[in-house]
Write the structure tokens for this entry.
Amino acid sequence: MTCYDRRDLGLLLLRLSTGGALAAHGTQKLFGWFGGHGIEGTGRYMESVGYRPGRQSAAVAGLSEAGGGVLLALGLATPAAGAAAAGAMAGATAVDAPNGFFVQGGGYEYAAALGLAATGLAVSGPGRLSLDHALGHTLDRGWMVPAAFGVTTAAAAVVIGLRTRRLRRGTEGEQGALFEEGQVVAGE
């Protein structure tokens, strides 16, 4: 009988909580479960925040979150699962960043926390209470971590960069108000 240590139990709990939250968010996007809006509603939202085409962006985000979350919870293909989830959270963080850090103000706190937890699991490995361990780590090799994060980083950089360019193009030529309503100007 194999003896599991606190580290294995801790990694299991972290995998279940992080993976479960990610999977739930992904199924909201894909199927409308748990009060979500499904592909159509999420696609419209994605369009409104600059991710185009919206329906495909919703599908990719939903699959990355749901698939990455389920795989993380199971401890299967942990490097790829963590990288996929982290990539989706990078996209969410880009949307929420203008609102500051704290989630109460619409900030990126929650997305960043999930993305960093997924990254930490991919880097540390799933522990012995995982399918990766049971399968001899065939889908959890050391070289897979930098490979998975290299691909994910490149893809996220392109997608977020295109979104940023679209948003900038959409505001070109616009000028904000020089003075707020009711503002007193010196000399008046």
Summary: The two ends are 84 Å apart (CA to CA). The chain has a mean pLDDT of 92. The CA atoms of residues 94 and 116 lie 14 Å apart. The chain is about 65% helix and 0% strand.
